[in-house]
Design brief:
The chain has helices at 4-15, 22-30, 32-50, 56-73, 79-103, 109-160. It is mainly alpha-helical.
């Protein structure tokens, strides 16, 4: 029989030390299972109220037992896997450093220094030809935009004529 809600009401009434409601007493009288539950709950409540409260030593011993059980239940990780991962990462960094500083390093640093001076010399030689166009470029770009605006305006005016 599903009487869990009635059992909950009985337990709540006994915990609060309130008298049981009349409707609940009728259910208890009609059901032997509820009668047994009420008697057991009353006996348990009286027994628990008569015991002295447990102090911190009991709480501490219970928590120590729980912690030790939790530690034993945790799966152990293989330390070999961690060492293999770490050593693999160190080996990869070492290989990269060796490749970068020996094989991939440019051989002719003097030639690179001369390349920079060659580039500067070429820029200086081309300066008389490129500076006027660079100086006039913003103005010429603006004239191109003005011309484009005038063409668009002419098209709008011609389209609006009947």
């Amino acid at each position: 029989m599903k009487s869990w809600f009635s059992k909950w009401k009985i337990s709540a009434a006994l915990d609060s030390r309130q008298p049981l409601p009349e409707s609940l007493r009728r259910k208890i009288d009609a059901d032997p299972e509820l009668q047994r539950f009420t008697q057991r709950a009353q006996a348990l409540g009286e027994t628990l109220r008569s015991l002295p409260p447990s102090g911190p030593p009991l709480h501490d011993s219970i928590m120590r037992a729980v912690r030790s059980t939790a530690r034993r239940d945790q799966p152990r990780r293989a330390p070999v896997l961690w060492w293999a991962t770490a050593s693999g990462a160190v080996a990869a960094v070492a290989v990269f450093c060796i490749l970068h500083f020996t094989i991939l390093r440019p051989k002719n640093l003097a030639r690179q220094a001369l390349d920079g001076s060659e580039t500067v010399r070429e820029i200086i030689e081309n300066m008389p030809a490129t500076v006027p166009s660079l100086a006039m470029s913003p103005l010429s770009n603006e004239w191109v935009r003005v011309d484009h605006d005038l063409q668009d305006t002419a098209q709008v005016l011609l389209a609006s004529l009947p």
